[in-house]
Amino acid sequence: MRTARKLICTLALLFACAVWWGCEPSRNDSAKEARATIATGATSAPNQGHSVQPLAGATPDQRSMLSKAKRHYLGGDFEKAEDLFAALVQTQPLSSEVVSGAIALGDIYASRGNLEEALEVYSALLKRAPNIPQVHYVVGRAYADMQKPDEAIAAYERALKLQPGMLFVWM
Known about the structure:
globular
């Protein structure tokens, strides 16, 4: 039951990310395009200010990778989904698709009991996108799953500071 609840929450969070940042599903599912986007060492300097830094628009390759990864994820093929999400997370620019992919990748790790690995993915994302409340939420969820309530509460508070009406934190 807990796994099903996490899956539903993750899917709802991915949907919320998509709505929040206005991403549209890709119509192009070319595997060649998806493979062409795999980049190594992609980094982005974190936003040093307190204002929300808008995300870049996704590339067609990022949209294609996310679409394929979500299909595998929803179909229960977590291994293929993991590979696609991991590749997507390494791409540039930092777009809502990359954020959604990192959240889903961390969720796959967490569902396997690899909470430390999930937290590493979320923490790396937090460095790239420190002003996105959904990222703080998943960090908090990871800490809660690790039985670290103080860290979880701090992360949830940061999410609520960025987005006071964030429904997921109140659930």
